[in-house]
Amino acid sequence: MRQIEAQAIIEAVKQAAIAANYELGEDLKAALAQGEKEEESPIGREIFRQLLENARIASQEKVPLCQDCGVAVIFAEVGQDVQVVGGDFQEAIQEGVRQGYREGYLRKSLCHPLTRENTGDNTPAVIHTEIVPGDKIKLTVVPKGGGSENMSRVFMLKPAQGWEGIKEAVVTTVKEAGPNPCPPIIVGVGIGGTFERAALLAKKALLREVGRPNPDPQLAALEEELLKAVNCLGIGPQGLGGHITALAVHLLMQPCHIASLPVAVNIQCHASRHKEVVL
Amino acid sequence: MAKDVYLHPPLTDEDVAAREIGDRVFVSGVLYTARDAAHKRLVDLLAAGLELPVDLKGQILYYVGPSPARPGRVIGAAGPTTASRLDPYTPTLLALGLKAMIGKGKRSPEVIAALTRYKAVYLAATGGAGALIARCIKKAEVVAFPELGPEAIHRLEVENLPTIVVNDCQGRDLYEEGIRAYVCRAS
């Protein structure tokens, strides 16, 4: 049984939270650069230019990409041959978030749902833990902004609505969101499972690198179809009109009940921040 | 035809009336920040017949809740937040002479009508360009509601903060008209 110190988890989460907020991934930078070339709208091209410049400044000057440093969502894959020692696993993650948001000068955006009083340290993080084979722990820290999360939806469709119903749900969600979630966006779509599983699939779908096709060719083709439909809306960068509303649509699918067709659409702004560490 | 324009508050009716959707407006001078909690406080003060901590006449409100400043820096990341959450409060503030708001995302029909009625404009800054916009901010100080943290009202001094006119005082909406030019026609 391999032992991992809770302190190592704290440190890893802290560093990942800071790095995720300062450094835009290479995949996103490449997608923005491509957008700057391909967008027909002059205002849209200017927006792409600003976003690339923003990423450069954030990285150079150690300033967050966006003032909304998000809810810290943590995907933890814990090897079944790992024993966490020297502290509580969940609490170590929370402490890592606490330290990262404080020491990285990241905005603390969590509050009591009713009194709206800020919790002061950006905890609690939302943690999704899976037990997997092996003796490692993989932690993915995903700062998720409020503007795009607010535009996300879950639909419990009728099975008869099928693919057309799914497509309509995705397009309607993006259309209604319009400029609000800071397009160009990435659209995570979870199909199947249950009410809550569909939402989790949609969020997980956002973690895939932009520009890397879905490994399942059938889903890859459906993603293409959805991306085309979404970009036909004309919303464009920042909603000011253009052909690039979404940089990518990512699907994850699993079987569901014979009576159900759950579909979740999780919208991600262009500042798609996630940082992975393996212990 | 969309133009490049440089605005310095306090703004007059004329400054605002000449603006058209799509104009690129570079703002320099003083801005006041306010988001959800500060708006609620301002409107509550007015309802109670009390004076506001800042005079909004001719001014621009920037919808932002910046991230904390690292020591030695003026401010952290400071991009715009979603404006629609502030729609319920906005007509009341426009009636006091507020001339422009900077945010991101759609406004309600009530706000758009109030822009015409009180002669004011809504400007969009680039959502998610928090580091880029922070570079335009030369000075920042909290002037009201310090207990609200990032939601406190800050007085900012800015230079050439880049925005685009989304709603002008003729009732036009770039979010509607901009999309129309690029939407795919049914084949």
From TrEMBL, chain B:
Organism: Desulfobacca acetoxidans
Top-rank lineage group of the source organism: Bacteria
Lineage of origin: Bacteria, Pseudomonadati, Thermodesulfobacteriota, Desulfobaccia, Desulfobaccales
Keywords recorded for this protein, A-Z: Lyase
Name of the protein in question: Fe-S-containing hydro-lyase
Family: Belongs to the class-I fumarase family.
Keyword Lyase: yes
Fe-S hydro-lyase tartrate dehydratase beta-type catalytic domain segment(s): 3-177
Pfam family, one: Fumerase_C
